[in-house]
Amino acid sequence: MDNEDKPKAPQEDAGQGIPAPTGAANLIDTDYVIGQDNITSSKFGINFDLHGKVFMFSALIILIFVVLTLALPEQMDPLFSGAKSWLTGNLSWVFLFAANIFVLLTIGLIFTPLGKVRLGGVDAKPDFSYAGWFAMLFAAGMGIGLMFYGVAEPLTHFSTSLEGSSWAPLGGAQGDTDGATSLGMAATIYHWGFHPWATYAVVALALALFSYNKGLPLTMRSVFYPVLGERIWGWPGHLIDILAVFATLFGLATSLGLGATQASAGLNYLFGIPNNNVTMVVLIIGITLVALGSVVAGVDKGVQRLSQLNMGLAILLLFFVIAVGPTLAIATGFFDNLLAYFQNLPALSNPFGREDSDFVGGWTAFYWAWWISWSPFVGMFIARVSRGRTVREFLIAVLLVPMLVSVLWMTAFGSTAIEQLNSGFEGAKNAANELQLFEMLGQLPLSSITSFVGIVLVMVFFITSSDSGSLVIDSITSGGKVDAPKPQRIFWALLEGFIAIALLLGGGLGALQAAVLSTGLPFALILLVGCYSIVKGLMSEPRG
């Protein structure tokens, strides 16, 4: 591309709300001004500044979906079930193939000279300390999932492997307790290791590069400038952003639905509050309203403070389980599980010719679709807090730090639950997924306190997810502005809650999974094209 041949001096402002590069950077020469296609108005004291086509199409289709799902639950339930079965049965390989490409790209960039490129220009300085940066990376990326699956997934994979069932990863290890433990933990770490964080890193790196170094809006369409050129400002770009909104909303709704399910189960376990749809709907409404306060406060005051609070509580709960659980098994298991993960990684990530189709379709494909759906949300959020980092520093941090914490978390909670099962306690194994964490904690000291902390963690992760998601969707639907009026963020935060309620009432967990798979598939294909754009964009940047 002619306008990317050599670095240009930074402009005074790369766009409204987007800081100009500090030092040399290769700005893309375009006449487009961020927000030029926006509709701005102020009625009844409420300000709006939004991209008309992206906002209206996204909001209208989502609202129609919510109304239909709530009005026709009996008709929608089989539709969701059928979509989920078809996608996992026929297209699981697409998700596995795409995720493998993301891993190979991110690891490859770490070891190439392109890793020297600094996000925001050669003289850019980081906006946040390492502590604040890591807390926001982790809390936004994995929170509710770790709470929901921290006991459920290791225990399930161990049990199916030991029994040799059709749901066992890689055929299982029937009758071999040690082999089943190793395989079960390897399969769990596979779902929380390099692949999800590489997916997030690809989107985050692309957005940060094309916004902070190239001067384009902080939206998904900007990533595709090397492919589409000026057409990103027309309908091709509109469609990319609309798909990003759908993927983000349904990915968030899945997490919020899981969080409400687990919080309801925990409240029933501790206080006897009925565990039913009414409780879950009330929880979603209540926590969504609380999230609005954080949305209004913004990233620095709202998200960062809540993220750090949640990280503190999560670390306390983690260390408690390590201290009072099977400490030696957890300590040795951390390294054993990492080794098992790397040993089984080639087989687990193979997209073709798999005999463990139930495991691939029911677990891996859903997870990859979930991470891909979350990637615009988590990726844009990571991009917003990562200006000033080099590509190499950025990728190492995003890939390794959250992954190692996830491995420690899964090892601590999973090993404890497996030890309990091997000692004769089957309460956690026989409980529903959302209740297994509380059943495991119930066998440890101070169970009432730790279970209550678990409920609080789920709720605060719920808030940070809703909060961060609203900021990101608002940026996409306001044409890339990062300082759009707050009423728009409030609208999206409320809509996230409505979608979670609609999906829970319209088909439960199956509906949540179907929605994520349906939006994750087209977005996986879009992200594969985005990988080319990243390399193309990095090659034109000066390296400090």
UniProtKB/TrEMBL annotation:
UniProt GO cellular component terms: plasma membrane
Region (Disordered): 1-20
Source taxon at top rank: Bacteria
Secretion signal, residue range per the UniProt entry: none
Membrane topology listed for this record: Multi-pass membrane protein
A single MF term (Gene Ontology): transmembrane transporter activity
Biased composition (Basic and acidic residues): 1-11
Localization, UniProt: Cell membrane
Pfam families: BCCT
InterPro entries: BCCT_transptr
Transmembrane segments: 54-72, 92-112, 133-152, 194-212, 233-258, 278-299, 311-335, 365-382, 394-413, 444-463, 490-509, 515-535
Keyword list, A-Z: Cell membrane, Membrane, Transmembrane, Transmembrane helix, Transport
Entry-linked NCBIfam families: bcct
Family, per entry: Belongs to the BCCT transporter (TC 2.A.15) family.
Descriptive protein name: Betaine/carnitine transporter, BCCT family
Lineage, opening ranks: Bacteria, Pseudomonadati, Pseudomonadota, Gammaproteobacteria, Oceanospirillales
